[in-house]
Amino acid sequence: xxxxxxxxxxxxxxxxxxxxxxxxxxxxxxxxxxxxxxxxxxxxxxxxxxxxxxxxxxxxxxxxxxxxxxxxxxxxxxxxxxxxxxxxxxxxxxxxxxxxxxxxxxxxxxxxxxxxxxxxxxxxxxxx
Length: 128
What we know:
The protein has a single domain, classed as CATH 3.30.1330.40. It is globular, with a radius of gyration of 14 Å. α1 packs parallel to α2 (87-97). By secondary structure, it is α+β, with helices and mostly antiparallel strands. It contains two helices and six strands. InterPro entries: RidA, RutC-like_sf, YjgF/YER057c/UK114. GO terms for molecular function: deaminase activity. Belongs to the RutC family.
């Protein structure tokens, strides 16, 4: 019988709605979309898409690490941008974190993101 496990860490921003940071189902970890909130203060990074992307990926990393996973275990990433004009910047920073075994991915522009941020990223990770 399969169990799902709810996972949350203080090293990533607390959920700002009715969801959890991550759910583990057997060997698969589903990480909720992360925005550029600083975990300790819940303040938004607003100094530009580059800084926002770094914070988002630090948040993703903290959730992965809490569950015993790493970027190398990510099999699918979803990137949401408020402006597709930011694609090159986000892609360059993303490549610094996913520097080996890049996952499947999509990147879409959306009209608005939570708290009017420029970038949100969610991932799915898997381990044997």
